[in-house]
Amino acid sequence: MKYSIPLLALALAAGCSAPEKQPADGYKQTLVFGPGEETKITEAFLTLTDSSAIELKAGTYKFNNLSLVQLKHIRISGAGPDKTILDFSTQTQGGEGIRVAEVKGFTINGMTIRESKGDLLKVNKSEDVVIRDVHAIWQVADSTSGGYGIYPVLCSNVLVENCYAQGASDAGIYVGQSNKAIVRKSKAFKNVAGCEIENTTNAEVYDNEFYGNTAGFLVFDLPDLSQRGGQIKAYNNYIHDNNERNFAKSGSFGTTWGVGNAAPGCGVIIQATSDVEIYNNRIINNNSAAIAMVSGFFVDAKAGEKVNASYFPVSQNIFIHDNTIEMADAFPEPVYHHHTGQVLVAIEKALGKRIPPIVYDGISTNVITQEQKINPDSICIRQTGDNLFVNADGLNIGTAKWKPGTDIQPFICK
């Protein structure tokens, strides 16, 4: 193309006044490393400046840990989860594999992270977080595994996409105390909880597969944390065959409030949170309860003493509709050896027939207000099928008054 003199002069003038051009992806510098350069990579993490990208070539890397703190616009990339492997199995210091804190604009993609002593990827107090095509794996799924595979906490604007988590002794994919989060097109297998959304607001969980865990998908609020959760939607997920033993650690993960309470064989557990919609999911062969709704009182009689602006022990505004739900005719064997599982077995025995797939502990805000309202917490169920629901009469379990019932009418959506 030929330029006229005036046009060429304008182009040159514009070029002279323009700032220094950045690479097409917007990062000011890109550092590329290969296997064998672990020392350089560790140093690069510690000395990285804003608007930097690190690319890790295909191969296996061995690290103690990696840390990024107080940065902006950072990307860590690999060649793909089956090609770039970050191995933390020989850790001699630190618990976490990769720790990210106070980063505004963080992306990590295209790698497998495996075998740390603690959490594999923890992203703390960060904004605009993208975790894509990351596999977080402990090959041996037991209490020696770290707690969380993929673990954004106290973050805002989080996307977890096309990820895979395996072997976590708490949750494979966990979003905690965060605001605005999406978990999609991801898989979790052989964890205690496949995916957990805890004390988080405005989250969507869709197009995922959670299978072979103790429990598939958990929406929890716990006390003594920074915020109350709510506004959670889970849809178009395939949640199946979550019937494995609970191997949560004692102590922080296996306490009264921890995921150690999740009974083997639960597809979805909703506990002490609000404004949750569970719909258009396939919840199949989770053979203790397809969906369990419980209050904080179910696991702690003193839950009422913990009420404050950040915690309310009773779930409210729960909408369950249009899911495909199927259960086998018998409990999974691990449920008989678990404290909460034994309650589910006792419910079935009391009913004299197979436990229904939707289990509600029946503990409402009436226990706090001392009223006798019917469905005061707006539990709304729109599902088809026979033997669909049980109110476990949780306040009277273990007493002569205990009488679980199957009347779903008060909870059918009006």
TrEMBL record:
Segments forming a coiled coil: none
Xref: InterPro entries: Beta_helix (IPR039448), PbH1 (IPR006626), Pectin_lyas_fold (IPR012334), Pectin_lyase_fold/virulence (IPR011050), SO_2930-like_dom (IPR022442)
Keywords in alphabetical order: Signal
Keyword Glycoprotein part of the UniProt annotation: no
Xref: PROSITE patterns: PROKAR_LIPOPROTEIN
Domain called Right handed beta helix: residue spans: 97-221
Annotated signal sequence range: 1-18
Pfam families for the chain: Beta_helix
Name under which the protein is recorded: Parallel beta-helix domain-containing protein
